[in-house]
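Morning!

As promised:
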Amino acid sequence: MIQETLKTFKPEQQNLLQILHALQDQHPQNYLTEQALEETARYLKLTKSSVFGVARYYSMFSTTPRGRYIIRICASPVCELLKVNTVIAHLEQILAIKTGETSSDGLFTLELSECLGQCQEAPSMMINDKVYNNLDANRIKTIINEYKQKNHD
Ligand code: FES
């Protein structure tokens, strides 16, 4: 599977970030395994330590297992002003985790993010690639329930 993904890219070093994104996205636990990083290094003829370094440097990559859904909640000034902390507390309560952790059912990982570019409709968050705005306690509950429902179907 890793090799198949690598072969969809030319073995050029400038493709490193795109490759890491693709490998992370294809893993059900949304992270870069040691094997994926090693095979990427070999494919691009880079040292293992430089590929590991890039994976650890960018907050969008994870080298430890995460949930199927990554919730990135904006903690930048505008969202903060609009009481995003209440929203975060609510999410932590619903998911029974702290920020940075993964729920016990393996579905959700909660992370903080920089501005998502949605300030006019803050507070905002992303779940994987989807953006959610104008968050409040009720909306959070509905959204999380929708994702849980998807996994029961
Ligand atoms: S500050 Fe939160 S989306 Fe911009």
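Residues 42 and 76 are 38 Å apart (CA to CA).

Hope this helps with the figure draft.
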